[in-house]
Specification:
By secondary structure, the protein is mostly beta strands. It has helices spanning 13-17, 79-83, 153-163, and strands at residues 25-32, 35-40, 44-49, 63-69, 72-77, 95-101, 104-110, 112-119, 125-126, 137-142, 147-151. The chain has one domain: CheA-289, Domain 4 (OB fold (Dihydrolipoamide Acetyltransferase, E2P)), CATH 2.40.50.180.
């Protein structure tokens, strides 16, 4: 099972910034290489380790293949391949989050489970048009020491369906 942040650890910078915000949403923060990614917790159906990925001939770029995850067969998405023109995740990547939005579902591969935090929507900085070319990225949260990309599973899955 992926390791989670210690409950007694000091609050993250973002949690401290948003402590007084009237409305927040909870996000699961995962790491892919050095990139931090936020997934809205309401769209995450499970997190865990995956086994072998079975390649799927003819699948859109970024679909790593099929995996057996939490009792079902799911499409495994390689965000690094989608965002970085074909680079693949290291074979050691065995962590995934099952996401579901707007009737679409898939597992997103990542390296580490980093945190689960509340973020105020007012903290979100929308990407400009050029950055929206990164499929599924809807905005970012900028901290003094890092940046977290907010990923929309529905938008990411629609992008892959349309790119076929």
């Amino acid at each position: 099972m992926p390791e989670c942040a210690d409950e007694n650890a000091p609050k993250t910078e973002l949690s401290e910034i948003n402590a007084s915000a009237p409305f927040t949403a909870t996000y699961l923060i995962v790491r892919l290489d050095s990139r931090l990614i936020a997934l809205e917790l309401s769209q995450v159906r499970g997190v865990g380790q995956i086994g072998k990925i079975v390649p799927l001939p003819g699948a859109p770029h970024g679909v790593a293949g099929l995996v057996f995850f939490r009792g079902g067969i799911e499409a495994a998405l390689d965000l690094k391949a989608i965002w970085e023109s074909g680079q693949q995740l290291p074979s050691a990547t065995t962590l995934a989050a099952l996401v579901e939005a707007e009737g679409l579902r898939a597992v997103l591969l990542f390296d580490a489970l980093t945190d689960m935090i509340d973020i105020a929507p007012v903290s979100l900085i929308e990407f400009d048009d050029n950055a929206k070319l990164l499929a599924g990225v809807t905005g970012r949260f900028v901290l003094p020491s890092s940046e977290i990309w907010l990923v929309s599973p529905a938008r990411l899955l629609r992008y892959l369906i349309q790119s076929k």
